[in-house]
Amino acid sequence: MGLAFDLNADDIGGTIDWPMMFEASVSGSAFSDFSGVEVRYPIAERWTDIQVNPDEFDIVIRNTYVANGNLIIIGSYRGVFTKNPHSIPGFDSATGQPAWDGFVAITRSFKWTGGLDSSYQQFIDLDGAKPFTTLFTGRSSMQILPMRMPYEWKPGGTWTQIAADSSVGLYGIDLMKQNIGSTAADSDLLQMSGLTDLAIVCGFGRVDASTEGLPIGQDYVAAAYHIPVQWSDYVNNVSELSNSGSKERINLGGRFGLEPIGYAGLTWGAGTANHTDNTPLEARFKEINLEDWLSDNTVLNPTLLSGTPPTASLKSRTYYPRRFLSVNTALIIDQWSEYYGPYVLAGDSAADDGAGNLFYYSPMTTGVFTVYDTFRVEIEAFVATARVDANIELDGSVAAYNLRGAWFSHVCLTTDFNIGGFNNIQPPTFLLCENTDHGGATRQTSIYAMGGLDDPASASSTWFDQCPFPGAGVTPSPGAASVFAYAVPGGAWETATGLTLPDRWVATAAQSATFTKGEEDFSKTAIQTWSNFYNIFGVSGSPIPNPVDENNVLVGVLGNYIRVGFNGREQAFLQGEEASNVAICLMGYTGTTGSRNSKIIVFDTGTVSAQVTNPLGAGPYNLDYTGYFIDVGSTMESAIIDSDADAIPVSAGWDNDRDQWLFGFNRPNVGKMALVSARSDFKEYIDQSANIQIPAYEFQPILSPPGYSFGNSIIFRNRLQTNELDGIGLGGDETDIAGPGFAISPISYGVFQKSTNFIVVKGTTGRVARVWVDYVLYDGVDALISTKLSSLGLRVTPENVEWFKGKILRSAGVDELDVKTEEIEEWMEAQRKEYTDMMRTKERGGRLRKRRSQVSAYRDGIEGALGEANKSSVDSRALDPADLDSLLGDIGMPNDGYNSDRKRS
User: Fold this and answer.
1) How confident is the model at residue 776, as a pLDDT?
2) How far apart are the first and last CA of the chain?
3) Which of 108, 155, 763, 879 has the highest CB neighbour count under 10 A?
């Protein structure tokens, strides 16, 4: 299937006025109900004691996620905090103090898929439906939740340092994945979930270690949150939604849960004095204190939150969580009906020197497993089991190194389907490591892996080294190595593949497992099925329908997210032995700012494995280094027409409808992001950057204010379960160059305006062929001769036709034609002139390369032209005399002359 040549990437970002969006959430208008009455929902109280001052406001976007009809954005914002619960000196009680915090924003992803044309202008002209504004109704089409990090624990440093630290915030996001049924009969998920997704987000905030029970000198503390995303407004507002003219329905679809149900915060000190007490009671998340509940690698079974936390805490081993930088979730396992799938966090930890002081920072990963109530709303049992440097095996085949100062920046599950391994061969979880000192001038990257069965006899087992396992199994020792070196500089992986690792990791992207038809149909009818199940109908008496986009295509609102690997229920394969044709891309670069070189390492998820050599499931493992790995970074970068010596890949998405990738590149020197199409086999690329435009429509001044421009980077995500290649990209300028991760700053224009390029990508695949057809129309006798030439296998050209005419004239004899010689000569001359004029016209238009036979056509004299044509343009095969006899018979000529000529010759 060809790449998309007619791709459009229209920017409507000039109306994403971030201060306005935040102010709408602070005021509560973004959380008001849809009946037109301003109601302050409890969850909106998380904005209590936080203000948005345009003079102080700033924002950094770190990641996005597109799924189930929603776009979720995470990052950092700077607001004004009007309370000082931790008594930090220098607080201005009159105005409050600026500080950085993490945020989650949500808006519908499918309302922007259409082109920006006149009908679209009519759409946004409706009060309350204008994209990203609060005009007319005071409502916003975007909801934003703060994490309240400066209130959750005491931030370290002065207020000036706190206000300047933009690294604080959220970095990773994924959705808790659920198996969905393929028919309406499989409705238990709908009954229990109420069409609620759970987003898992993670990051970190500043901390004063001396007051928080952390090693003195520790600067940050990690945090993770469960954020419900609902479609429940379809139930609460049936009469409003049944009105096709409802402005509010257009304005906002999916949203955060408006009640504090299903929210959870995995934070340090949660539930203790001066922590969540700073959040109004009605807006607090469920409190899970990492100080108590973050366990070491020996705790595998979930414990009831109403019970006593495990004694084998991470803190008891004098390790403390510092930063969570990435999260990746796996699908729920069939036999575990009360669970969401497990998820893995990646980041780093702080080690205590034994005297209460910071010793060093090093990588850490944490597997989290949750047990929910019957309705899959509230967490009842929980386990978070951590792996620190003591559990990470170093590669002894290379020069000695250590992990101090390094961190895990990304976690990549090579399959979402945790159904146990095949023949004791396990799909590993990759952990991308950064900032490792291997003795060179540059800190380098590496890849580590987790894998291995806990209980091979269990059909529903997962891997205790990858995620915690809720059942009987082998308990590892506190120092057991369960994270293994997969690829390190100069190691076996580089030798086996011939590739080299980058200096920095920037992003990852996974190719989605293809949806079955049943899954897609179920996802696109879920709301109707749910409303029918609960007998909730609109005014028409029909079940509430699923939403449709402006193309009138149903939107998948359940299970419509990236799923990696094969579903073993449908297609089993031998991990490590058989290619799955499902790719994961690891993006990074080598070099330093100003002269960076792109790295895009692609591998087939079915060709990497961790072979368990211990029958009990613990390490060591026989890691497979011979998987299908390629590096397409430099090749793809070279496909960008307007090149940049500092360009690097920063995002990517694969479209499951059109089987191709779109990669987003940062181009700081050019000053505008690049977008490159790639075939799924990475053998063809097209630079689509020229298609990123601000549409020139009559309302363009609204969408493109003075001073507004494109950023140099784009965070792009595909939309799944649609009928076309499409997606959404957020554009801005690269920030936080030193890492970890990647982030963009807003486009600043005017006095207080801070916006983001909101780029709607839409296109189709297949090449549009534009062909110039140059032809000669033959009629009459010429048509008959041409037909005969073709049947003889000869090329039909003016030269050949004229040559045959000459042959016919000579073979028939002039006397037998009953025409005068002068008339024949005049006719031949007219034919020659017409042909000559045609050839000259074609030559002048540049549409025909001159050949010898064409040049010869300009010669005077019919014999010269036909003679030359006979040499160069006529098929070299000899003519069967019988064929020519037949030709002469067809046109009513006697063949005696020709035969006598043949005999005489």
Assistant:
1) 78
2) 58
3) 155
pLDDT digits (tens, 9 = 90+) for 752-776: 678 888 888 887 654 455 667 777 7
Helix (H) or strand (E) holding 343: strand 343-352
Q: Which two tokens stand for residue 149?
A: 């990090």
Cα torsion 890, 892, 895, 901: sign: negative
- Compute the mean pLDDT over every residue in the chain, rounded to the nearest whole number: 76
pTM given for the model? 0.81
Is the backbone peptide bond immediately before 547 cis, with ω within 30 degrees of 0? no
Q: Of 114-118, 728-732, 802-806, which range is least confident?
A: 114-118
DSSP 8-state assignment for residue 885: H
Pairing of strands 692-693, 8-11: parallel
> CB count, 10 Å around CB of 245?
7
Name the DSSP letter for residue 626: -
Distances (CA, A) of 536 to 34, 237, 545: 17, 10, 11
Place of tokens 């493992």: 621
CA 641/CA 636 separation, integer angstroms? 11
**Tens digit of each residue's pLDDT (9 = 90 or more) over 311-360:** 999 999 999 999 999 999 887 554 455 566 688 999 999 999 999 999 99
Q: Which of 631, 625, 610 is nearest to 449 (CA)?
A: 610
Q: Residue 448: how many CA atoms within 13 Å on its side-chain side?
A: 33
The mean-pLDDT minimum among 60-74, 112-126, 144-158, 257-271 falls in 112-126
* Long-range contacts, 123-132 (Cβ 8 Å, 24+): 123/250, 123/550, 124/699, 126/247, 126/250, 127/247, 128/247, 128/248, 128/250, 128/251, 129/247, 129/250, 129/251, 130/15, 131/12, 131/15, 132/15, 132/16, 132/17, 132/20, 132/21, 132/107, 132/758
Report the percent of the chain where pLDDT is more than 70. Answer: 68
Token pair in block for residue 882:
């019988």
More confident residue, 556 or 902: 556
Provide the residue count of the chain. 905
Q: What angle do CA 703, 705, 711 make, to 5 degrees?
A: 85
Find where tokens 């004791």 sit: 424
Beta strands in 159-244 (DSSP E): 169-175, 196-206, 220-230
Q: Distances from the Cα of 92 to the Cαs of 26, 57, 58, 159, in angstroms? A: 20, 17, 20, 10
| List of E strands, 397-540 | 407-413, 425-426, 429-436, 444-450, 484-487, 504-510
Burial of 633 per CB tally in 10 Å (0-12, 13-18, 19+): buried
Amino acid letter, residue 716: F
Q: Minimum mean pLDDT among 45-59, 167-181, 314-328, 355-369: which range?
A: 167-181
Whether the predicted pLDDT of 875 surpasses 80: no
Residues 173, 175, 176, 177: is their CA dihedral positive or negative? Answer: negative
- For the record, the structure tokens of 436 come out as 């490792």
Bridging pattern class, strands 407-413 and 425-426? unpaired
Radius of gyration of the chain (CA): 35
Residue 754 tokens read as 């801070």
d(CA 198, CA 108): 16
Helix axes 862-872, 821-844, angle to 10 degrees: 60
